[in-house]
Amino acid sequence: MFNFKRPRHKLHVSDENDLRLSDLKPGEKGCIVEIGGSENFRLRLIEMGITRGSEIRVDKFAPLRDPIELIVKGYHLSLRAMDAQKIAVKRIA
Amino acid sequence: MPETTYNIAFAGNPNCGKTTIFNILTGAKQRVGNWPGVTVEKKSGHSTYSNNRFDVIDLPGTYSLSAFSAEETVVRQYLESDEPDVVVNIIDASNLERNLFFTTQLIELGKPLVIALNMMDMAEEKGLQIDADTLATLLGAPVVPVVGRTGEGVDLLKEKILRVSTDISLKARSIDISYPRDIEQEIDKISELFRDNDLTDKHSRWTSIKLLEADKQTRDEVRYHQNGTDILNQVKISTERIEGLFKDTGRAVISHARYGFIQGALRECVVENLAESADQSRQIDRVLTNRWLGLPIFGLFMWLMFKITYDVGSIPMDWIDAGLVMLMDFISSLLPNSMFASLLVDGVLGGVGAIAVFLPNIFILFFIIAVLEDSGYMARVAFIMDRIMHNIGLHGKAFIPMIMGFGCNVPAIMGTRILESRRDRILTVLINPFMSCSARLPVYVLVAGAFFPENAATVIFSMYILGILAAIGSGKLFSRTILKGMSKPFVLELPPYQKPTLRSLVLHTWERGYLFIQKMGTVILVGSVIIWVLGYFPTEVELDRDYVDEKSTLIRHFDEELTDLESKFKISVDKDRLAYHSEMIEYESSSSYLELHEQYKLLQDEISTEKNKQLYNLRQQEIGDITEQKWIGRVGKIFEPIVRPLGFSWRESVALITGFVAKEIVVSTYGVLFGVGEDVDEGSQGVISGLRSSGMTPLVALSFLVFTLLYTPCLATVAAIKRETGTWAYTIFSIAYSLGLAYTLAYAVNYFGRMFNWLS
Ligand SMILES: Nc1nc2c(ncn2[C@@H]2O[C@H](COP(=O)(O)OP(=O)(O)OP(=O)(O)O)[C@@H](O)[C@H]2O)c(=O)[nH]1
Q: Which residue, among B569, B246, B430, has the nearest Cα to A46 in the 3D structure?
């Protein structure tokens, strides 16, 4: 399994393997590769439909930049940036 | 024909319209909200259908049966019990995929199931065409399309519920959610071991799946089975195998597989014709949760909420006030000078009446909160405010009970159940009492009106701000000390905006307002009567001053002055007449006479006014002296030394003690203390002048307001804290902490105020 605790290298954002949901800009779409974090957190997200392979779209940031509003499985959901950072995605054009 | 009773459980995701359909079915008075998780209580009602009785329970909305939160635990325990005969799963057709996740769990649970496909209107608007019959076949349970808003399809739903509860063959028809082959094999291996225990196939499958999901509750239960160790051993082996194969935990693999099943089903029965522009909520949110506009708009809404509450509320307030005065006068004239009349007028009407005036404010506030909830804006509030709440170590959702605290802390504390973790709930419960509830408003209005007539609004507003600051500060303190630990992940659904229906707004407002009226009818009534008793007895008191004598001396003194004045006037008139020569007009009509007369009248008025004023002050002093001798005064005296450093007299001490019953009683206590209801000067005007002449300075008034805001909430709130935290430890802590904070800050106001000579 992925270990998401490893330090992040900002320089390597272009590395598609290390793109996080929190790196997407409003309007961009991603495909979920993997969810990190604690077991309870992962399960909560999976139950809410954030499953591996599903498409997710960053709709906007809250006025204070956090949390993030997402669209997944046709509904609107919001996550904190620090949690979105635990989700690895692949950008979809 | 004998009636058969069936137990029906309503279950579904938050915000799927469960409560709406429940209301249509049962006609019960229910709360209907639009932010996830409004239904925090288990609510019941009943309905009849062709001679059968349905006892319906509306379960809290949950996303799954994993027992993460208090609500999920309640739902799961109830559904696993033997009680429900049929489970009605309400699903939001416009959000089908996610809603069906919960459905897959219900199917596995194996209870007879009926699925109500709600919000068909929204689904259509969104461009979804759903084939309900195919869905029913795939899920192995009847699917009834309904529209909760209009009640369309509810009759058919009743019919299906009855069919499922009576028809055994329908019950047996349910299907299994199929998992990938490797998982199925492991499920079989485990359920095999249940053969020896007399579990049904269905139940052993459900238990096996739960075991693979490492569900703690199920593990604990299985441990006591006769071959519990064998089963748990097998679970361990199977889990390892699954984790090896899928490179993920058992729970995650199974949850993913459920979505896999759902996606397969949806491909067969849903045709999507999504039009992006149809997402109206998104358009609205472009403005309401906009980067720049979001916060100012929210601030504006809050400001409007208060403005409307107080400005509009003050109109009916005056009517109620006038009505009460009329009623009091009527009773007094009917039963002059009896003890019973005093109990009715001063005790009951005086006490409860002082609160009744605020009913319009409270109902308006609850109505506005209902609008915010039902429209879906409350969830956006959580979205906008999360950043700030996160600072205190809380979830954005915790902002909702905090705002509700402005109405009444009791429902607000009950509302903390929307939070998932116990730590978040306790933290929110502990800081909630600092949100200035509507019951404190009467005290602010009275005291601020008496001492800061020019700046009353500013003073009242600062109290609200101080309360918020106290909540934030305490929240930070607690989350760093007694309640360490991170708050639960923030996963918040933002439901589509809805035009609230009048029916649900009225129900909502009424439910909460009713709580307040109930409180008024019970706690406050009892409190007012107790205070009246304390203030009425002993009936004979000995006073140091002879008020009768002082009063006649006063009257004599002023009468002498008046006679004096009259004789002086006569002398001047006589002098003037001698100097008067004209024969054209009578002297009494001459301008010089009129001038003298006018002067005389003016001086006469001045003296009379002064006389009345002094008589009134004497009367106030007498009332004060009498009250001091009554039981209430004696109780106040006992506590006076404690509150003296804050600048308070025994009156404030009495008012604060009685305020523990309910804060609004502080006002009625002052009413009793200043003998309002005995005097000609009725209503709050009497209390205001009483307060002013009692020797209270504006500074003491301010520190009194600070104390009132912060000290121990009312009895009802204490009861709610006990109920929600479940322990006396937190309850007692909350009482002690708020008393301590109130004392410290009130002392600081008084101390620094005197040091810098403010407001003395
Ligand atoms: N358009 C539409 N709106 C509906 C329908 N049914 C319910 N609603 C609205 O959906 C919102 C949520 O309804 P509730 O009945 O409070 O939902 P709930 O499932 O009980 O929610 P929780 O109490 O959070 O579990 C309300 O604003 C309803 O007016 C429907 O069929 N169509």
A: B246
Same-domain pairing of B483 and B583: no
Q: What is the CATH number of the domain that holds B255?
A: 1.10.287.1770
B55 shares its domain with B199: no
Q: Are residues B299 and B428 in the same domain?
A: yes
How many of the other CB atoms lie within 10 Å of CB of B483?
18
Specify whether the CB–CB gap between A82 and B486 falls below 8 A: no
In chain A, what residues touch B68 (CB-CB under 8 Å)?
40, 44
A62 touches chain B (CB under 8 A): yes
Nearest chain B residue to A41 by CA: give it: B489
Query: Which chain A residue has the Cα nearest residue B128?
Result: A74
**What does the CA dihedral B423, B428, B434, B435 come to, rounded to 10 degrees?**
170
Cα–Cα distance for residue pair B563/B578, rounded to 1 Å: 23
Does A49 fall in a domain? yes
Task: State residue B276's pLDDT score.
Answer: 61
Pick the residue whose CA is nearest to atom 9 on ligand 1: B17
DSSP character for A59?
Answer: E
Q: Which residues line ligand 1 (CB under 6 A)?
A: B 12, 14-20, 32-34, 36-39, 61, 118-119, 121-122, 147-149, 374, 498, 501, 504
Co-location of B409 and B556 in the same domain: no
Full domain range(s) for residue A82: 26-92
Which residues on B lie below 8 Å from A43 (Cβ)?
Answer: 66, 251-252, 255
Task: Measure B505 CA to ligand 1 centroid, in angstroms.
Answer: 12
Q: How many CB atoms lie within 10 A of CB B139?
A: 24
Whether A70 maps to a domain, the answer reads: yes
Give yes or no: residues B186 and B48 share one domain. Answer: no
Q: Summarize pLDDT for B456-465 with one digit per residue, the tens.
A: 888 998 999 9
> B311 and B459, same structural domain?
yes
Number of domains in chain B: 4
**Residue B352: CB partners within 8 Å, gap ≥ 6?**
B520, B521, B524, B525, B528, B668
- Which atom of ligand 1 is closest in space to residue B61's alpha carbon? 25
Closest CA to B747 of B702, B695, B714, B694: B702
* Chain A residues within 8 A of B388 when measuring between CB atoms: 64
In 3-state terms chain B splits into helix, strand, coil percentages (rounded to 5) of: 70, 5, 25
Tell me whether residue B634 is in a domain. Answer: no
Per the domain annotation, does B688 fall within a domain? no
* Higher pLDDT pick, B578 / B296: B296
Q: State pLDDT tens for residues B369-422.
A: 889 888 999 889 889 989 988 888 888 878 878 887 887 787 788 777 667 677
Last residue of a domain, one of B590, B623, B656: B623
> Which of B32, B43, B92 most suits a substitution to test ligand 1, by most atoms within 8 Å of the C-beta?
B32
- Minimal Cα distance from B105: which residue of A? A47
Ligand 1 centroid to residue B593 C-alpha, Å: 82
Q: What percent of chain B has pLDDT above 90?
A: 29
Range of the domain at B580: 542-623
Nearest to B255 among A1, A43, A64 (CB): A43
Residue A83 lies in a domain: yes
